[in-house]
Amino acid sequence: MAQEIVAIREVLKKSGYRIRKQPKKPSWTVYVTDDKSYRLTYQPAPISDWVLQPQDNDASRHTLFNLIQRALTKRPVNITTIGIS
Q: Distance of alpha carbon 85 from its chain centroid, rounded?
């Protein structure tokens, strides 16, 4: 999971997103704008998947989803049902 976190953070920072780690949780707030953010959380077993919330149909969420998915596909990880759809 540590490699996934590094890959995700790297891609998001290079794309201009601000990221803030949540204390004591495998969770990050990803700021799209000052007024719009999403929470990216790693859900441990039995789910063992990344979740991006809230789930909405905003274009910024789809862009963020694609960036995260791209970061994860560069790593040997099961992304068949990345919980960020």
A: 11
**Residue from 33, 82, 3 nearest 11 by CA:** 3
* Confidence band of 23 (pLDDT split at 50, 70, 90): very high
User: Averaged over 56-64, what is the pLDDT?
Assistant: 92
Write down all domains in the chain, each with its CATH number in brackets. 2-73 (3.30.310)
**Rounded Cα–Cα distance for residues 84 and 59 (Å):** 14
CA angle 61, 67, 72 (to 5 degrees): 125
Looking at residue 49, its pLDDT comes to 87
Element at 53 (helix H, strand E): strand 49-53
8, 32, 2, 6: which is closest to 82 by C-alpha? 8
